[in-house]
């Protein structure tokens, strides 16, 4: 039972919670648990993120009438709970009104649905496609919550002035913005700048509540915060973890202000935030998909070592199985490094030589291949044998295969379709090779507080320091086929992230032939990427949801060439 307060005080609980798309009963149960905790802390109001009852983003699932009806039943059940006199509720769901489907927030109090507000500004860029499924709502007025006129702009509604201006002009006293804002590097500063602009324009304090958790390729980092009307930080919730923040707000001289809100320390490096995003994305993908654990090939190289560390930090060593799949080109150095990495992480480690599989495939092909010289075909047979064996282990024992290709490789097609690209999820899909090296060094000196893996170094220094190699032929090095990764990644940053023209990259000092070759490889590999496993998004433009290029594409940027 909430305490009786004066009209000049309001205790607000903010549920930075982790829903699961489509698990309406589970999301309702989660909401009830958070509300009970808020009631125990005498909150007047509890707020949940955008579309919480459905899970976000529901994509085309939200178009099913049965899904819409199930969300509405859950809302009515939660509304009935509020007859207990406990906290009012603001919660997001898909809501049908006058035959139109909206992205909405409902106010529940005293056992009933009291008000609904619809999202006005539907994003339709990058990972967002809301105009496909939702109708925009009218400009909203505030909702009265325990005598306070609360404006509820939903996520994108605060990215421009119009909705907040309307709420301020119609008597809003306090802004609460429920969000489903996915993570990418630098996103926290962007959000803060947007929120600050709305506070300056409206003169109203603003609470920014964000979802947390992984959903397919997206990771929601939470990191909710509030700003007082004078732009001072009212509170800061932690990132990448569920959290219930309860804050007292008081009105003095006609203005609402927070009273002693908690301030969580942010990650002090962007790479730390990226690492935590990869851990959370993998953890939730495995958990929400129902896999008992994961299995991955541990080659002794840097990519698989980082994926193994991420998997152990996400799931615990007892749910991670690593397999060395050697062939005659596998060096003793790689065998030693993989074994040392597995020992440091404490995982089950198996040795499964692939020679019988490779030689069997080559024998089967011999009548057709005849005396043709060996080439990349035989190299790919090795990779595909490894992929086949890992998938067989997954089928037999149940764990999901983690695939381990980085963004540099995925960009230029330095990966084998149906081979090392096999798998259910890729935690490093959006990390360039140079960042993979950085995150390995980072994890050896730092462990996230919520990680389930061990303290201290978790991979041998030699894994990070030795020249990368696919080890598919004698003395092979990645730089035999690719530019040095420092050069390759800088060119890809321009071509992929920034859409920089070839001519501009050449003008910046890159070799014209190298830039043209990288651009060509980038386009040619589109068909591979279209068949690749999903993976955690950490950059503004990941492959898949953000960057949508045709598979058949003969355009090449002349870059000033004739």
Automatic annotation (TrEMBL):
Xref: Pfam families: CN_hydrolase, NAD_synthase
EC number per UniProt: 6.3.5.1
Positions bound to deamido-NAD(+): 380, 409, 528
Catalytic site: 50, 119, 155
Keyword field contains Manganese: no
Residues in CN hydrolase domain copies: 10-256
EC category name: ligase
Annotated binding of L-glutamine, by residue: 125, 181, 187
Keywords, in A-Z order: ATP-binding, Ligase, NAD, Nucleotide-binding
InterPro entries linked: C-N_Hydrolase (IPR003010), C-N_Hydrolase_sf (IPR036526), Gln-dep_NAD_synthase (IPR014445), NAD/GMP_synthase (IPR022310), NAD_synthase (IPR003694), Rossmann-like_a/b/a_fold (IPR014729)
PANTHER family noted in UniProt: GLUTAMINE-DEPENDENT NAD(+) SYNTHETASE, NH 3 /GLUTAMINE-DEPENDENT NAD + SYNTHETASE
UniProt family annotation: Belongs to the NAD synthetase family.
Protein function: Catalyzes the ATP-dependent amidation of deamido-NAD to form NAD. Uses L-glutamine as a nitrogen source.
HAMAP family reported for this sequence: NadE_glutamine_dep
Name of the protein in question: Glutamine-dependent NAD(+) synthetase
Source organism (scientific name): Methylopila musalis
